[in-house]
Structures are given as C-alpha cells and as structure tokens.
Amino acid sequence: MATDYKKFIEDIYNEVQPLRDDGQVAVYIPELSVVDPSKFGIHLQTIEGQQAGVGDHEEKFSVQSIAKVLSLTLAFQQKGEELWSRVGVEPSGNPFNSLWQLEYEKGKPRNPLINSGAIVICDILCSLYKNPADTLLNFIKETSGIQSLQYNKQVALSERSLGFRNTALINLMKASGNIHNSIDDVLDLYYHQCSIEMTCAEMTSAFLFLAHQGKNAFTGEQ
C-alpha cells in the first residue's frame, strides 16, 4: 500500500499555521521586499514517483541560497576533492556573510554554502565554462527534467544593486588570491544563480538526485 504522504504534509501544513506571520521577507533586497510573506507551500516527491503538495507549492519564487547546493554539485562533479583546497567543509558558527572570519582565515571560506564559499564556487565555474550562467541553468534543467526553468533578471539586478557586502567579500578573497576571474563576472553568476525561479514542486525534481544515490532520476546519469 502506498504511503499517504498527502496526509502527512497536510498535517504539518496545518500545524504550523499559527506561525505563518512570524519573521519577515528579505527587506535588504528590493525585489524580495515586495514578496507576499503569507505565501507558504510544501511539496514532496519520492524516487518511486509519488508526489504530494499543499498550499502555494505550484507558485514560482526565486530560490536564492538554495541554488548554492546545485552550483556546488556542478563544480564538484568537475573538480572533485580538489575543490576543498579553496573552500572548507566546516560550519562557520558565524553569519553567512561574515567578513572578519574570512579575513582571519586568509580568504578561504569555511564552507560552500555561506556567501563567500558560494562566490568561490562561482569563480570555479567561471574558470571551467565560457558561459557559466548558461551552463549552470542547463545543468539544473537536466537534473530537474524541466526545460522551462529561467533566471529572473529583475531579481538578479536588484540583488546586484545592493550587493555591497558581497562585493567586500569577493574583494577580500581576490586580495588573498582565492578569486581567479573578473569580480564582475563572478558576482554576475552569483546573483543569477540566486534568481533562478522554481516552484516547490519543481524544486523536488531538481534535488531528487540527492535521494537517488547521486543519480539523475530522469536520465540515470551519475
């Protein structure tokens, strides 16, 4: 008998409703500050093909830092363990955009999921590919099986317009020799990856390979 995942996620959805108005959207990015904070959706997909969703799970949004996992996957696929010579694998214990920790550790980010680490990953992709933004988007289309995925150019530009701290991070790493490409090119890729739009349902497809022993669930590619 198939598991009733719909019942599970509906129970979770209902349980957290009292918390729905807690927190706030990212007001430091203009385009994100106007997002409706009441939007909330859950979607689940299994490697056997079962799917269940509730709430706003079919509504697109810019995935922001979630995309760091996908750019890391592409870079690791190409560079393997060599990657860790430029970025660590430890928790930072500090804010995701900490400058003092990066300076203390001579420009090597603690891990690839804080901003500085994700920027290094983007620098690696800029070295690997002539058109890294196109390559990354095509990679995500392949992992998800969804060819219609796109960047939200307006969100990318909005993030760049106030990306002063990220600019400080990349300049510090450039001074330490851990950024090899043009600062503008690397940050352009970084802001574009954050602006990728997906629904909750599409995101489960994009990340299904992580539940499938690292294999693309749609093509079987490792």
Characterization of this structure:
By secondary structure, this protein is mainly alpha-helical. It is built from ten helices and five strands. It has helices spanning 5-15, 30-33, 67-79, 100-104, 115-128, 132-144, 153-161, 164-175, 183-194, 200-206, and strands spanning 41-45, 51-55, 61-62, 150-151, 196-198. The protein starts with a helix and ends in a 16-residue tail after the last helix. The mean pLDDT is 94.
Summarize the structure.
This protein has 222 residues and is mostly helical. The protein is built from 10 helices and 5 strands, in the order H-H-E-E-E-H-H-H-H-E-H-H-H-E-H.
Cα distance spanning the termini = 30 Å
Largest sheet descriptor:
3 strands, antiparallel
Q: Which strand order do you get reading across the main beta sheet?
A: 3-5-4
Strand content of the residues, in percent? 5-15%
Gross morphology is: globular
Counting H and I runs of at least 4 residues, what is the number of helices? 10
Rg of Cα set: 18 Å
Report the average pLDDT across residues: 94
Number of E-state strands: 5
Give the topology string: H per helix, E per strand.
HHEEEHHHHEHHHEH
What oligomerization state is this entry in?
A: single chain
Low-confidence stretches: none
